[in-house]
Amino acid sequence: MQALGPRRQSTLIAFKGTAETAGSVGDTDPAFLNRWQDRMPGFGDVAKAVFGAVLLVIGIAIVTGVDKQLEAALVEASRPGSRA
Predict the structure, then answer these.
(1) pLDDT of 27-47, one tens digit each?
(2) What is the mean pLDDT of residues 15-30?
(3) Does the predicted TM-score (pTM) go above 0.70?
(4) With DSSP H G I counted as helix, E B as strand and the rest as coil, what are the percentages for the chain, rounded to 5?
(5) Residue 12 and which of 29, 39, 70, 73 are 20 to 30 A apart at CA?
(6) What's the CA gap between 6 and 26, in Å, rounded?
């Protein structure tokens, strides 16, 4: 048997997780999925709004330079012997 190259191996590993997830959804009870089916569009709308707000806050932090201040504070707090 021929050994797989590192590129092919990483591709197989990446898709293994996808296959396991799809398989577990396929094994789920149809009644359970039907109960959640009508809630999913609402969840998607909320998730999209939350994700947009998080990206907006991150963007504002980058433009104003707050991200660098936060990074400096976290680096200082992570140093051994610091009193954070």
Answers:
(1) 667 777 777 788 788 888 899
(2) 66
(3) no
(4) 80, 0, 20
(5) 29
(6) 30
